[in-house]
Structures are given as structure tokens and as C-alpha cells.
Amino acid sequence: MKRILALLLLVLGTGLIAEDEIVRISLLNTESDSSGQYVLLVHIKEGWHINSAAPLDDYYIPAVLDLAEPKNATIADVIYPPGKIKSTRWGGDLSLYEGELQIPFRIETDAGTQRVKVKFTYQACDDMTCLTPEAAYLEMDITRKISAMPQTTDMERTTQVSQSPATDPGKTGEAETGPFADKGLFVVLLLVFVMGLALNLTPCVYPLIPVTMGYFLAQKDTRSPVLLAVLYVSGLAITYS
User: Between 2.60.40.1250, 3.10.50.40, 2.60.40.2890, 3.90.700.10, what CATH number should domain 2-144 receive?
Assistant: First the structure.
């Protein structure tokens, strides 16, 4: 219901009321500080209001501050004031701006002096009608200076690089060789053999030991069970080595 009433107010107000001087914008400070920050002053005509930057419903047009030109400049750190919550005649609440408000912002651009055009988009309404969304423009000349930075010589760069943390060669070698680097081949094979035997005690292998032994003992009449066991273990060793 609120959406329908808002659209009706927009249609009825279109073309019936002139928008001249309903919203005027200017700069509170003509020169920025060292961070490039400015403050936009927005004056709204008495009896009128505009939607805030954070309206309570998606179908309301928010107030937006942006740059129309040039392309190499961007607006940043825009700080919108909180809107005033006001009840409407048809029910529901609105987040509005009335009277005067200040919007701090910062302009990022290349070095030098150039002209930028600030764009402030809004939708003006009174208690009965809403006008079509409009945009107010403000042109301004800004100058960005690059502070002189001490140049770094090649000697200083070399010194800085030489002072950077280096990796300890001893620790690197230890990490790469591993804990068995100082052990002989026979000791390593013996340790691997012992660890392989320990795997037989795991829950998935231990129950199969009597089954395997029973299979070999059942072949003792035709073949040597020891020979069968050696061939079986050798096959496993060759396969998984």
C-alpha cells in the first residue's frame, strides 16, 4: 500500500510544481585541508524535504553525492548525516533531510589544478506530492600538490636491502635434510622395518593375522608354509616399496 501511494504522489507531482530553488548546494569551505576534504552545504526550501541517504524502503530515491566529471577524479569518504524519522499521513515512517545539512567528502585526483563537477542527486517532496528525482551540480577548481619526498639513492637502497632479515642457512639445511640425515642406510631400513611391524597391531590388520597364518598352515601338506609366508611378505614388500 505504501509503495502504491508513493508512486501516485510521484506521478501527480510530476510537471505540476517547479523545482527551482527547492534544493541548493554550495561549498562550506572553498579550500580543502591537507587531506583534500571539503564540506558540501545543502539547503532545502522550507516546507520541502528530500529522502536521506539511507531511506527506510528500497523504492525511495536516496540522496547521493558523486562526481560527474572528470574521469580521473573520484569522490571518497562521504559522510552522510543521519536522516530525521518522520511519520507520513498515509502511514509508515520516512527517513528525511530538512532545512540545511552538511556532507563532508574528499576528492582524489591527479596532481595539479583542475575543474571538477560535483553531482548531488535527490528527490524532493512535500506533505502531498513528490517530484521526479533531480540532480544539482556544482563546479569547483581543486589543486593537489605533491609534497617533496627525499630521494633514495642507490647506496641507500643497497644498505636497506643488506639490512633486511636473512634466513639462517643452518636452519634451512636442517629443515630440508630431515631427522634421518645423520643416520646410516641400515639404521633407516631397520627403523622402517620396525614401524612396518608396528602397523600389524592396528585394529584393521591385527584380526587378519590368524586368518593369514591359518591359510599358510593349511598348505603344509603340499608346500612349505615358511616358503609361502616368505613369498607373501616379499610380494607385499615389493608392491608397497
Answer: 2.60.40.1250
